[in-house]
């Protein structure tokens, strides 16, 4: 038996684990590996959540695709075909749409779970082979507001600009809209360690989550009011003389603008807007400002709003005003969600970016990347549109008519999902590469069964900017191919016979050159180094460089080295409650499912732990509606209706209901969500919309 050191297929913590080969069982398709602890990996020290412990189950199982599928135009059903035939059909279809409607009628939608190599090659494929500007990915739905805010404030976007271990050294942490006790339990030890060291934890969440139960103080603002809350905290800091004036003078610009904006958020007004009592607001401001060191960490709860970027800027303002950035034990960070949400946005999957986190509109960046790719910079397309806009316009005049989806399931995970489903159905050609027949794949004209995680080698970049190596432990099933192979074969069929290797390390070597000199510089990182060092933090510009676990200690990443305050003010959610829709809906995750659930819903142990959607509501509201525990309720927004059993708990505000978003069908939470976009990040407003709730008798 051999054990391969690798990492979990799921979230951005990228826990280390071992995969031990075991004798194949009696059942065909039974896992040939089992998950074992890897205590030497520093991030999780052997600990895994239920998803990680059961990760081997996704490698086998009856749901696994094992041959390409092609939709038969006569019967409308998906039929197994050879790889040759499937790839010929995809290449011909993409070429045909481009010939009839122009190359801008072809688009690509990637995923935050793809390895760096796949994300890189997918971006290159879109821009060099398809020559389309229309590429984006589902990470747009994840942490794009934190990315936009960090870039504006610090000049660099790296989820955490410090290692996770620094959390345990902070004097006070504000965790805004994150629930790691549920979503990444092994990370909780950093927060409990911080409290054992005397630090204080403040959790901001409309629900008293499992994480909130570990907090010294839980603030429960109304959904969509975090900006007001953060600005109210800054107001108290200013009014009570808690500013770090030396830090503001030495390392920042723009404080006066932020101060003026914060003064409009006096405590009584903030209480009115958020529902957070003034004494709690004052207590939180004094706890945070009074601590020697401190951090604000945001996650989707604060970020997935039509004002998500400004909300994160407000949290950054608080850090800067109290001197809690750019020094050990202090700073702003974002708890990235998807496995490679960080790397996925660094290597060219985003509509406005080139590898190395370079801007697609920067002539020098274009010249550098075009040089690596061996093309004329003028031939590189310009920026396209964001993920939701790409899907929203699909199949319409001016939108894409052919779409390649790689590692994403927008039918479940996109906002206003029924509309997105209709748009996908209207395409001339939908191609989906995935490991199972996801709800999006089920709509496709061609489905390509892809190798996954333990079946192929590739790098991922965790939420702390640590580039790690997932090593192949088993061969993919017969009939399954890697996404790199798909891109190589399609490129060749579309006339680009070079520059698309399907060996991961070869792709990574090119990625290193493409990223060299960029913000996310991987030039000094190699597979050998990652293996020897348990990962390497970017930027790492050359082989002798030690990597950069902590950013901003000397200067921030802006041209003048100073961090930027922003004058940001509260504004209501894009959709407010009214007589017809009197409640807020907020959406989120449960511990035993991951994202759209395409993989985890097919793992028996996880499915048993979290078998279906539910609607969480307060006893007061349940009483008014005449709803008992487990009874079916209907939640209706301006976009549709979803039904699920009631789960009654006083851990949620009486004016708010909560649904997890992992399931399709009648209980699909994203049928309800609002696709209103943040003007900068183009993040949809997943976290708040107006709904009504009623008893239901049928699904
Ligand atoms: Fe996997 Fe995340 Fe769970 Fe770790 S916390 S085992 S990376 S899902």
TrEMBL record:
Gene3D superfamilies: 2.40.40.20, 3.40.50.740, ADC-like domains (2.20.25.90), Dimethylsulfoxide Reductase, domain 2 (3.40.228.10). Keywords: 4Fe-4S, Iron, Iron-sulfur, Metal-binding. It comes from the Bacteria. Pfam families: Molybdop_Fe4S4, Molybdopterin, Molydop_binding. Residues 1-63 form the 4Fe-4S Mo/W bis-MGD-type domain. This is Molybdopterin oxidoreductase family protein.
């Amino acid at each position: 038996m051999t054990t391969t050191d690798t990492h979990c297929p799921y979230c951005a913590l990228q826990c280390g684990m071992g995969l031990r080969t075991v004798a194949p069982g009696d059942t065909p398709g039974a896992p040939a590996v089992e998950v074992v602890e890897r205590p030497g990996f520093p991030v999780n020290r052997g600990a895994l959540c239920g998803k990680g412990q059961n990760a081997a189950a996704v490698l086998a199982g009856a749901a696994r695709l094992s041959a390409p599928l092609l939709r038969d135009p006569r019967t409308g059903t998906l039929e197994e075909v050879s790889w040759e035939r499937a790839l010929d059909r995809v290449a011909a279809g993409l070429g045909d749409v481009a010939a009839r409607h122009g190359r801008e009628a072809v688009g690509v939608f990637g995923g935050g779970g793809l390895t760096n190599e796949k994300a890189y090659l997918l971006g290159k494929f879109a821009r060099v082979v398809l020559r389309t500007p229309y590429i984006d990915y589902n990470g747009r739905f994840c942490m794009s507001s934190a990315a936009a805010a960090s870039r504006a404030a610090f000049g660099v976007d790296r989820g955490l600009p410090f290692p996770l271990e620094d959390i345990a050294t902070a004097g006070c942490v504000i965790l805004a809209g994150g629930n790691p006790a549920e979503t990444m339990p092994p990370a909780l030890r950093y927060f409990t360690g911080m409290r054992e060291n005397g630090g204080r934890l403040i959790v901001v969440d409309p629900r008293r989550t499992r994480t909130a139960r570990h907090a010294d103080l839980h603030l429960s603002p109304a959904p969509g009011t975090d900006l007001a809350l953060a600005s109210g905290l800054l107001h108290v800091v200013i009014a009570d003389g808690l500013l770090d004036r030396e830090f503001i003078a030495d390392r920042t610009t723009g404080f006066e603008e932020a101060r003026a904006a914060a003064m409009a958020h006096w405590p009584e007004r903030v209480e009115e807007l958020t529902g957070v009592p003034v004494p709690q607001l004052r207590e939180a401001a004094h706890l945070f400002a009074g601590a020697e060191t401190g951090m604000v960490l945001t996650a989707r709860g604060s970020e997935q709003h039509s004002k998500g970027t400004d909300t994160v800027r407000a949290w950054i303002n608080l850090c800067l005003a109290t001197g809690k950035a750019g020094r050990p034990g202090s700073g702003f960070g974002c708890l990235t969600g998807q496995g490679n949400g960080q790397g996925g946005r660094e290597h060219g999957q985003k509509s406005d970016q080139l590898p190395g986190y370079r801007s697609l509109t920067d002539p020098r960046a274009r010249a550098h990347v075009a040089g690596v790719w061996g093309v004329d910079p003028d031939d590189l397309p310009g920026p396209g549109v964001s993920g939701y806009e790409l899907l929203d316009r699909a199949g319409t005049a001016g939108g894409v008519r052919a779409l390649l989806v790689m590692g994403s399931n927008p039918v479940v995970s996109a906002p206003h999902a029924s509309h997105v489903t209709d748009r996908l159905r209207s395409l001339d050609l939908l191609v989906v590469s995935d490991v199972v027949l996801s709800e999006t794949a089920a709509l496709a004209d061609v489905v390509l069964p892809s190798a996954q995680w333990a079946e192929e080698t590739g790098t991922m970049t965790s939420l702390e900017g640590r580039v790690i190596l997932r090593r192949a432990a088993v061969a993919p099933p017969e009939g399954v191919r890697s996404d790199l192979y798909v891109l190589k074969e399609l490129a060749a069929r579309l006339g680009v016979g070079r520059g698309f290797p399907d060996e991961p390390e070869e792709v990574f070597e090119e990625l290193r050159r493409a990223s060299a000199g960029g913000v996310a510089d991987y030039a000094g990182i190699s597979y050998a180094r990652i293996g020897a060092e348990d990962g390497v933090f970017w930027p790492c510009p050359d082989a002798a460089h030690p990597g950069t676990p902590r950013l901003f200690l000397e200067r921030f990443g802006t041209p003048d080295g100073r961090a930027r305050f922003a004058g940001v003010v509260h504004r209501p959610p894009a959709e407010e409650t009214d007589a017809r829709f009197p409640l807020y809906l907020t959406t989120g995750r449960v511990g035993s499912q991951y994202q759209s659930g395409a993989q985890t819903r097919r793992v028996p142990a996880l499915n048993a732990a979290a078998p279906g959607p539910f609607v969480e509501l307060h006893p007061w509201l349940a009483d008014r509606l005449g709803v008992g525990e487990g009874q079916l309720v209907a939640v209706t927004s301006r976009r549709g209706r979803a039904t699920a059993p009631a789960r009654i708990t006083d851990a949620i505000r009486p004016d708010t209901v909560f649904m997890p978003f992992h399931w399709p069908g009648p209980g699909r939470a994203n049928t309800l969500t609002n696709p209103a976009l943040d003007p900068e990040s183009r993040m949809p407003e997943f976290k708040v919309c107006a709904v009504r709730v009623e008893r239901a008798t049928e699904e």
